[in-house]
């Protein structure tokens, strides 16, 4: 009988008995990630609960004010016949004075979340371990470097995605009664464009990927945090700059001041008789603006615009860009980890 035939069969794990080594390692890694990220998870839960408690009364108060003053769909200047009643403009102005700072402030806080998460959560994710040397202890427990990095990314990205999704939904729900018109916080405003749709989730996931990669490259906490904050701010600025051009827009022969409140006019200028486009400030430095426009052959104004139907396509394209960048950065980080870098 051969040695193979006489070898004792491997013992199968019994119920309540020890788990296979690989399963124990993965379970231990998951437990470690929870231990390291539990304060972040608690912070997300706290913020979401506070928003869930504070936003419904605000929404109810705004809806009651709008109903009591009959200003639904009205702006301070509106051509809608039902918005022409006595006191309508004053009521809209009063609503904006009372509630618009809240809507704007919450939107700006949510817009700042990617920088906060990238700087204070994602940047130290790997850099703190490298700087303190604790990563060697983890990798000494039969865990590969790629497994460790992947677990770190998931532990930061999962609560970030779920928490930001909840905050986005609550903020959009609170904003809805006064959308575009009464509050003056339009769908195209910078704070709502980020905070009121899936772009918030995508931008935060991008910030997590940026912070983790920068931390993995620098291996120092403070430089990683500084570089991540600057990088995420720069990305947000670039995205805001190119946002109007991510989906086909319309050009209409109309002044921006004549546009309805639910239309986003992002560019304006002059048209000449032969169809040339001139910037709006073309004659701003001339001593005689009228003579300047006549000499240039200006015949009318134009505005490049998006209508509200473009909101979701714009959200989809920009969110896709952020998620693709996040996946690329995370993939590069994992590739480096597999190579032992």
UniProtKB/TrEMBL annotation:
Keywords: Membrane, Transmembrane, Transmembrane helix. The keyword Repressor does not apply. The keyword RNA-binding does not apply. It comes from the Bacteria. The chain crosses the membrane at residues 39-58, 106-127, 148-171, 191-214, 221-240, 312-335. This is ABC transporter permease subunit. It comes from Kitasatospora paranensis.
């Amino acid at each position: 009988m051969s040695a193979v035939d006489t070898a004792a069969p491997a013992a199968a794990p019994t119920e309540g008995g020890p788990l296979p080594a690989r399963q124990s390692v993965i379970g231990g890694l998951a437990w470690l990630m929870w231990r390291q990220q539990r304060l972040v998870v608690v912070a997300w839960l706290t913020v979401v609960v506070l928003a869930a408690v504070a936003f419904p009364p605000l929404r109810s108060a705004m809806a009651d004010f709008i109903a009591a003053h009959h200003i639904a769909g009205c702006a301070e200047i509106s051509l809608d016949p039902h918005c022409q009643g006595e006191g309508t403009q004053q009521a809209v102005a009063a609503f904006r004075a009372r509630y618009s700072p809240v809507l704007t402030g919450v939107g700006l806080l949510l817009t700042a979340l990617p920088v906060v998460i990238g700087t204070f959560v994602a940047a130290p994710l790997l850099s703190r371990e490298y700087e303190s040397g604790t990563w060697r202890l983890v990798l000494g427990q039969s865990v590969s470097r790629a497994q460790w990095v992947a677990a770190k990314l998931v532990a930061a990205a999962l609560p970030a995605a779920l928490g930001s999704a909840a905050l986005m939904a609550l903020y959009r729900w609170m904003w809805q009664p006064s959308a575009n018109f009464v509050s003056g916080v339009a769908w195209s405003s910078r704070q709502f464009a980020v905070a009121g749709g899936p772009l918030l989730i995508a931008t935060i996931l991008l910030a997590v990927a940026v912070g983790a990669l920068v931390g993995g490259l620098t291996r120092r906490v403070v430089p990683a945090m500084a570089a991540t904050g600057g990088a995420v701010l720069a990305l947000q600025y670039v995205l805001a700059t190119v946002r109007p051009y991510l989906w086909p827009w319309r050009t209409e022969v109309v002044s921006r001041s004549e546009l309805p409140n639910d239309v986003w006019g992002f560019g304006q200028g002059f048209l000449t008789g032969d169809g040339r486009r001139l910037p709006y400030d073309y004659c701003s430095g001339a001593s005689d603006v009228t003579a300047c426009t006549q000499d240039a052959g200006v015949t009318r104004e134009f505005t490049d615009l998006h209508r509200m139907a473009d909101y979701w396509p714009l959200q989809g394209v920009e969110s896709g860009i952020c998620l693709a960048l996040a996946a690329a950065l995370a993939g590069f980080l994992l590739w480096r980890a597999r190579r032992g870098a």
